[in-house]
Amino acid sequence: MQIAKYSNYTLPDFLEDDDFLRFVISPSHNDTVFWQQVIAAYPQQKEIIAEASKIITAYRKQDVFTNADNQSKVWLRIESTLQKDQVKSKIFTLNRFLRIAAMLLLVSSIGIALWLIKGGQNEIDTTYGELSTVTLPDGSTVVLNGNSKLTYSDNWDKNSREVWISGEGLFNVKHINKDPRIIKPSERFIVHCPDMDIEVLGTTFNVRSRHNKTNVGLVQGKIRLDYVDAISGKQSLIMKPGDYVQHAYKKALIRLTLPAPEKITKWTKHQLLFNDATLSQISEIMTDDYGYHVDFSSPDLTILKIEGEINVPNVDELIETISTTLPVKISRTDKNITITKLNP
Amino acid sequence: MSHEQIVHDDHNTAIWLAFKEGNWDAYTQLYNQYFKILNNYGHKFTRDVNVIEDAIHDLFIRLWTNRAGLGNPVSVKNYLFKSLRSIIFRKLQSKSRFVDLEDEAEHNFPFEISFDQQIMADEEEQELQKKIKFHVKALPARQQEIIYLRFYEGLGYDEIADIMEINISSAYKLIYKAFDNLQDVLKTSKLAVVLALYSCFCVNNH
Question: What is the pTM of this model?
């Protein structure tokens, strides 16, 4: 950088200069030193330099719009769109041989599916550890976790959109209601669990329904839960984004607010995410979703808790985390896990 | 005349390359790194948050779907800015009912910054900001945009030309026009004479 050229720079000249701009926006140590030298060499320029600097600085103190609140929501949309497309593109990139094999498989599974269809019912089952994305007749999608089942009728023309779930699913429901004052039956979307019904208009939410207990986390939109309360009988509850509800048939409903609702959907990315979880809760996930059999050497081990957040990509790392955090020894053969107390 | 980058922002080559190879975590990192500043830039073209979010969604879908065929931009941020800008324009265009009858293929979409949330401690700075705001808002949209890309984002003229899809000499002309229109701001009592001389100099040279 040349000091001499700045001797008779005008205000617009400074504004136009790359080096001056960098000095005002994010000066390095060299920049600071350099411009001190410029001012020392040409004191008559000091005021113009100050003025130019003030103008740029004042301009830069403007409002910033980050939309940080919606960062997760938009990300979930992106993930959901890409999962849909991933399924689509998998079908189209098969080579000829595989294409034929796929057609045969399709034909035979249509045969089996037809056999399974009783009055037009579709049933999707996942095995342990398997994730599956289901596209429903209206375009809504459900990502099913391992060991889960989703049933729905083919014909959604006149009736309301209904599905039955056991297990866990992340729902992305298409909003088709035109007039909020009048909700037609076909615009309703109902998820049936053994112990409750969830009605939505269009939204993103996570349902975990196992052992006659259902947990629902709402990420985006609005849903209504219809359930049976221990004392007051049939009840309804409206959930808003961030709400998380735990329910068991005829038991009291527990309602929480999650600071980061999208975390409950991490399983769709094959991530195991826990927050302040007990060994009993963790082992339940390993059993229900992944098909492991977990044995505890003594029942008081089940209430041991791991404080804070665990975020791991697979069960092996989960086991590793548990054994390094808690005073336990974990041995494993295939899908059998035994947890014993570590002697001090 | 201008350097490649005035303010060196990202050294994101590693993340960009990993993402192109299909690394989902790298892709997530890109999103989290640029989400806020993309919103900030998008907000200058429209206050409709849905349009901004849709555009960001479309941008990232496009990125992932076409990742194998993407090049290696010198600045990932500029590349994202340029892409977001054209996606937003397309969305605004389909929303507006007016057909552009101008000869030049210039867009007529607004570009607006705001100072509403700012509380200046210094009274002098407050006055200056008021003056800046008043005169900048009166500029044509493209001049407002080039001022923003130059003085807020700190971009070089070649980067600005790339993002705004104009050639470099047009970029220079555009900023001179903006300075011209901003004379009242650039004036201080002592400099009025110097500025008048400068304008004459400009006129003689174009």
Answer: 0.51
